[in-house]
Structures are given as C-alpha cells and as structure tokens.
Amino acid sequence: MSQNQLSLLDRIGNWEQQRWPWLVIAFLSAALVVIAHNVFQVWLYMKPCEQCVYIRFAFLCMTFGCLFPIVCPKSLVCRIISYVCGVYGCIYGIMCSVKLQSIHAAIHSDDLDAMFGMQGCSLQPHYPFGLPLEKWAPDWFLPTGDCGYDNSDVPLGTVLSPLQESIINMYNDAGGWYLIPSMKFMSMAQCCLLGFSVALLIYIVLFSGMLKKRLAAK
User: Fold this and answer.
1) Cα-based distances in Å from 167 to 34, 94, 119, 151, 198
2) Mind listing the pLDDT tens digit for each residue in 76-87?
3) N or C, which end of the chain has less CB nearby within 10 Å?
C-alpha cells in the first residue's frame, strides 16, 4: 500500500516510530521552560510562584520522556516510557494550571471573600516523588513570588533598557501577564492550560496511531 493510500491514523503510526515528533515535543517543552526562566523571570523580573515552578516541572517531564524515543525511536519500550512521562506531565500540568487560574481569578475578583479557603501558594514547594528540585536548581525551581500576581518586581537601582521598560510597563498596566495585554486576554495560567491540553491530545493521537498499527499487524 502506498503512502497516499494510508489512512491518517496509519500515517501517524509511522510517524510515531520516527524521531521528529519526539524532537518537536521535547524542543517546545524545554523552550517554554527556558523562556519562562530567562525571559520572564530574569529579564522581566517576574518572580515565579509555587504553581509556576510546578508547571515548569510538568514541561520537563514531557521533555525527559521524549529523550528515550529520540535515542531509539523503534523501541516500543522507549516509546511507552515517553507516553507515561508525557501524559503524566500533561495531567499534572493541567491540574497546576487550573489551580493557578483559580487563584488568579480569585485575586482579581471584586468579591472580597473569593480568596477564603484558597490554598496552593507557598514558598516551600513539594515536588512529586520527593524530588528536591528547589535545592538542586533554586533559581529555576524555588518559588519566590505570589500566585496570581504576574507584575514585575524590578530591584531598586536597576537600569532597564527601553525595550525592557516598555514591555514591563505594558504588563503592569494590564495588571499582569496576558497573551494580549491590552485586552486582558488569556492569562498565563490559561495559556499553560491550553498548552498542556493540546499536548495531551497529541499524545493520545500518537498512541492511537501506534495501537492501530500494532493491531493491524496481528
């Protein structure tokens, strides 16, 4: 059967045994963590909160899992490890994003009682499996900010470049980070939630392609 005659799921089953899908997922997941740290935290002085660093961990779970099929894409075991790590990272990231969005909505609500009983923001993180990431890489995984507040905290005496100052003022005027600050459209938590949801869908589609190909081979 030619490639043109294959169904979409059959093609996905073939792609799933190649390196490029896993390279794309690994690159995007790692890039988002690097951007969160180097751009927003270091360059724009936005301190990460507890849920923010958990979200970084979730993206790194996806990156870590992809390393196995990148090394050996034909190995079923390597791909299964990637699915387990990836789906776990997506679900964990979705949970953290939902919690962060709930805190964000409560903080920016006009209801004074909206924060009553709200939990999930601490300066002492507790990572899954007891991983002491905040000790291994504190600049990346130690929360130093408050959940729901995305404003820049520029140290006194810091000389900002014109570009830095304009971007910081744009976010501060909007009351935090938004995909479209002027419209307050899509908070950081909502963008992360969308990203993890799309990634989970991709994992499900890839796994379905693999399953169909294995069933057809029997």
Assistant:
1) 18, 28, 30, 11, 28
2) 999 999 999 999
3) C
